[in-house]
Amino acid sequence: MEVWTYFQDILFPRIQEFATEAWLAYSRPLPSSHNQLLSLFLMCCCIAAAIGGLFYNWMFFSLQYSFQFSAAAASAISFLALLTLFLMHPIRCMFTIIVPTLGTKQGRRLLLSATFMIVAVNIVPNIMSNIETILQVIKCICKNSSESLLNSTVLLGNASWDFSDALKRVTDNMPDQTGRARDGHVWFETHNNNNLLSQRIISASQGIKEDFLQVDVLVQKVILLGNRVIAGFFLFYLIFESAWYLKSYLTDLRFDNVYITKKLEDLARENKATHLLVCSPKKLIKSTGFKLSREELLSCVMHLFLLTLVLMLTLVIIATDYIAFHLAQAAVTEVAQFPVVPIVISIKYEAKLIFVPFLEYIFNGAFSTEQSLPPFERSYHQNLTFVSANCPMRWPNPPNKAVVLAVGLLYCIIYTMIFLETYSRRLCRKISASFFNSQEDRRVQYLYRKLVGKHKKKNGHQQKPTTPS
pLDDT tens digit string along 148-181? Predict the structure, then answer.
């Protein structure tokens, strides 16, 4: 209990007082004392260092620039930010407005750019790698099955040799007047060259692999270049939007002037016109409230719909990564379990010798003119293999769950930023008001006069006399 009392009565008031003095020194056009000047310089140094660090990480890790270029650009940006923040009051206000502007659509675009870069650098190459694994499996199947099929022609050679040997024995048993023994054999000759076939298959697969790698490299370069251009455009547009907001705030009294602020309530109370705020138009919004107007809700719904379309595209890419991995895993696993296909060649041969067949009719079958020879029947076996154990096949790369988690976290932040966009714009107005108090007073006076005029006009219509009939 004593600890809570210490925090509530001593520590929290001191922190609040310190933050108020630091913000006063930061938002004033000119420091009023040496302490405010020192506080302003230290705050500008911290902000410049933070800007340089964020810029370096964004260029080196997200946009894939070199270390030297990223460090040099971050150092230059940090030094330039220090000078401009310390010496120029409007630029200091503009840079401060950039922080809540990151919660608007420009900040969402920057996060979407970073998300696309993560997908392009981590997920797309993994898809290409798994597809390459599938192509490697197909290459192994084609090469080994063709070699095994060509090697099976040896069976035909053995069968032809044995069959010709059997034919030779038949002719050897024939009399000289009806047949003559021959020394030759029937031979099945095949013209194949396994080395030439392997070279052609390897050459074709290497050509496909090189074309595939060229497409992969081209896609990576196009995505990287496009992401750099889009990210640079969004960054400059973010700065431009902050500058445009500040310019409109300073030059147009009607711009973003729809809030019931404390100054407006005090002015209405001094003039005893608090009823103007109670009966205010629906477009007026309490600056410290969380209620969203109808226009703000419609804008959130539209942005949610567009972001969901982009999310669906990202989910399709992530699903493709998982599908490619499971297909490659199934291909490698199933190929290793391919059965051996047996090939069987069976030859069955029967022969009879007939000597002067008309003699059998002359002597009424007294003796036979036929002679049966031993039958020839033989089978030849060989196995046809589709994949060899020597075929190099790498295991597919699984999807990186950390990358998927990072992409999901970025999308959660982007979805949250859609609802916080309205409050970010309110914070931009509050920052501008703290930097330019006199301009905020003029804006409050203008809004008050506008409310008084609308109230008088409304009462004039209601109290308009009617003519007697």
Answer: 776 666 666 667 777 677 666 666 665 554 444 4
Distances (CA, A) of 353 to 17, 162, 238, 350, 369: 125, 20, 103, 11, 8
Which SS3 state, helix, strand or coil, does residue 382 take?
Answer: strand
pTM (2 d.p.): 0.64
Residues 6+ apart with CB under 8 A from 444: 261, 263, 264, 267
Q: Kindly report the length of the chain.
A: 469
Residue 158, CB-side half-sphere exposure with 13 Å CA sphere:
13
Give the Å distances, CA to CA, from 355 to 168, 176, 349: 19, 12, 20
Token code pair at residue 218: 């081209």
User: Dihedral sign, CA of 71, 74, 77, 83?
Assistant: negative
What angle, rounded to 10 degrees, do the helices at 89-101 and 194-251 form? 130
Amino acid sitting at position 4: W
Tell me the torsion sign for CA atoms 324, 325, 326, 330: positive
Which residues, 6+ apart, have CB-to-CB distance to 173 below 8 Å?
Answer: 353, 373
Which DSSP string corresponds to 65-110? --HHHHHHHHHHHHHHHHHHHHH-HHHHHHHHHHHHHTTSHHHHHH
pLDDT band at 455 (very low <50, low <70, confident <90, very high): confident
How many whole angstroms separate alpha carbon 259 and alpha carbon 440?
Answer: 12
Contact 133, 464 (CB under 8 A): no
Smallest Cα–Cα separation from 277: which of 287, 289, 268, 266?
268
The pairing of strands 352-354 and 285-286 is unpaired
- Cα separation of 63 and 427, whole Å? 30
Q: What is the mean pLDDT of residues 450-454?
A: 81
